Amino acid sequence: MKNKRFLLSALKWTLEGYNPYEWKLFRSFETNSLAVSIVGSLDTKIPSSVQKVLLDNNIIKNWNIGLNSRDCEWIENRHWIFSTKIPDSWFFSGENHILKFKGLDYKGWIYFNGVELATFDNSHLEYELNLNGKFHKSDNVLSIVFDVSPRWLGQYGETSKMTDFKPRFNYTWDWCPRLVQIGIWDDIVLDVFEKDKINHFDIETDYIAEKKSGWLAIKGDIFGQSDTYLSVSLYDYQEKELLFDTKLDACLFNERGIVVGDLEVLPWWPNGMGFQNLYSLIIKLYDKEDNLIDIFCKHIGFKHIDWLPCKDAPKGATNWLCSINDQLVFLKGVNWTPIRPNFADVNIEDYQLRIDKYKNLGFNLFRVWGGAFLEKECFYDFCDRSGLMVWQELPLSSSGLESYPPDDPKSIEVVTKIAESFICRRKHHISLLMWCGGNELRASKKTDDPIEFDHPLIKELVNVFINKDPKRKFIPSTPFGPSFCAYEHNYGKGLHWAVNGPWKIDGTLEDWERYWRADDSLARTEIGCPGPSSTEIIEKYCGDIDPFPCNLENPLWARTPWWCEWKEFISENGRQPVDLNEYVAWGTNRQSKALVISIQNCLHRLGQCGIFIIWMGHDCFPCTANTSILDFEGNYKPAAYQIKKILTSD
To answer: pLDDT at position 26, please?
Structure first.
């Protein structure tokens, strides 16, 4: 019998809400009877956040309007139960039944037919549950109970104490108000098999430019292995032309894997350098009677990465010139943050819209920021097809007051498990360029110096990446090197390797231009300047609050106070703006000019500087102002059009 896979996103689900633990006293999971619920039972689907279900049922107001997000905070202080009835036809006597939970945010209990089978407490890990001997002949009910969220994981605090591994950004950041997601953020899968099963494949590829050929290495884990064999085939993307085919014993494969060289393939190129050539890798598991048992399909590509020293780089500096397939490529990127605070509800179209926009602007890199989560498979699929490379960070970030990563044994163990999981799930993607330990991590609790390789956690991560993904670059943090930022008074001293900032103009545009003309940084990993959203966006989402005046006395603008430049307008013009339209026009023009200056100077230093990454790409909330170049709805802000002229010109 061929193995079967069922997606629980195809089922009908319900959501109920309770005061903490009341459901334990009064609710029967097996019969799905209700007792003292405060909300329920609401029909829903997965993936979904609790917040989206409540919004769809008019229980809460749209948190994107005005100050409505403040009225949603009660949701975090309740218990929430997602339930579904799994069809009888999905269960088979004598078969193995494994449930895989690909994304649960964040903590709680899993019940099956009224019995607690497992707990979970990490948004960044997958969980598996064996249902053997636990299912009934009919009416099998799965319930996932979400506990209350940690009280605070937001922008300010102490990183060394941030040991609840849940995305932090939606607790409040300088570009997002508090909307702490609870829910199922990725699919749940039921695998049914008799005794043999493909568990996992580890895939590495390379391209040898001088030979114009590809290299492929596959290791894996075949469960069972009894009298089974594998068929490994490589096709073109459309699966019309067979490029390679072999068969081997499954037990032998588990021991040795397979390595294939001299493959007649075309290389994968970043956006703007050539085609994103992809191939279909199909691996089938057969029994001794040649019956198909299981199948594995992935799209892969072939590229070669080298990191070279920048011209005039100080001794010991990290190499920041990137070579793809023996051709230098200037890394032109944006910092990718979640599309929405309730990222469980983001659909494929939301991803495609934004990734297409960035591709059209001429970018070739995303830095997936460390205050969030491992982006979904569809994000990586789009990047593979679009030529946008991915710098993936682990979920660790600065905290304002102190940014030293936790160094206790338990936290180190958890973060290394997260790293191993990230590698396992995303390593095969050709768009993946490099790994990073996190965002703005510091060397100690009392310094601004970026973290080094000697931190206990970073040492363990180095071992993980050397063993699990040795061909890709790993750095401890962004920024990395002797200095966190680039300071004018330190130009020429060899201190500016990969640096973050600035994010605002300090002084006049003339001061900004002087700063960038003298730059000696090897890599600019966050550069930005704030600009308002359009008048239309601001007025659409302001609610009953007048969006003018655009100062911090206005609660709309005080939600993201870093990016309000009312005082700068007055300083530059000698008066207050007459209305919202004038302020928006001034602010968007100011952002455009600032980003053009910084990007042009980085490109002018090609060879001395290997990378610039704009902070940030897009809004996940209708900010009145932010450093983004795409607004909340995915529209270009005026700065984006000016950037496109630079990045797509000959």
So the answer is: 65
The predicted-structure confidence for 462-497, as pLDDT tens digits, reads as follows 999 999 999 999 999 999 999 999 999 999 999 999
Residue 386 lies in a domain: yes
Q: Using alpha carbons only, what angle is made at residue 118 by residues 112 and 122, rounded to the nearest 5 degrees?
A: 125
Measured distance CA(600)–CA(231) in Å, rounded: 51
pLDDT at 33: 54
Instruction: Report the candidate in 52, 48, 176, 192 with the shortest Cα–Cα distance to residue 130.
Output: 192
Q: Do the beta carbons of residue 207 and residue 267 sit within 8 Å?
A: yes
Report field, pTM of the whole predicted structure over 0.70: yes
Say how far apart CA 512 and CA 354 lie, in whole Å: 29
Q: Are 333 and 613 in contact, with CB atoms under 8 Å apart?
A: yes
Q: What is the SS3 assignment for 639? A: helix
For residues 145, 148, 153, 159, the Cα torsion angle rounded to the nearest 10 degrees is -80
Average pLDDT over the chain reads 96
Q: Write the pLDDT tens digit of every residue in 53-90.
A: 999 999 999 999 999 999 999 999 999 999 999 999 99
pLDDT in tens, 208-240: 999 999 999 999 989 886 789 999 999 999 999
Rounded distance between C-alpha atoms, residue 420 and residue 22, angstroms:
37
Q: Which domain holds residue 206?
A: 197-300
Residues 184 and 104 in one domain: yes
Q: What pLDDT does residue 31 have?
A: 53
CATH of the domain at 279: 2.60.40.10
CA-closest candidate to residue 44, choices 375, 349, 344, 379 = 344
Binned at pLDDT 50, 70 and 90, residue 609 comes out as very high
Number of helices (H) and strands (E) in the chain: give both, helices first. 13, 35
Task: Report pLDDT for 40.
Answer: 81
- Rounded CA-CA distance 165/78 in Å is 19
In our burial notation (b when 16+ CB lie closer than 10 A, e otherwise), range 464-480 reads bbeebbeebbbbbbbbb
Tokens representing residue 630 in the block = 């795409």
User: Which residues lie below 8 Å from residue 174, measured CB to CB, with a gap of 6+?
Assistant: 155, 560, 561, 562, 563
CA-CA distance, 3 to 20, in Å (whole number)? Answer: 40
478: its two tokens: 């962004």
* Section 290-314 average pLDDT: 96
- pLDDT, residue 30, reads 54
CA–CA distance, 83 with 32 (Å, rounded to integer): 9
What pLDDT, on a 0 to 100 scale, did the predictor assign at position 269? 98
Residues 167 and 263 in one domain: no
**How many folded domains does the chain comprise?**
3
Tokens of 325: 């397939």
DSSP state of 425: H
Q: Is residue 585 part of a domain?
A: no
Strand 321-324 versus strand 305-308 pairing type: antiparallel
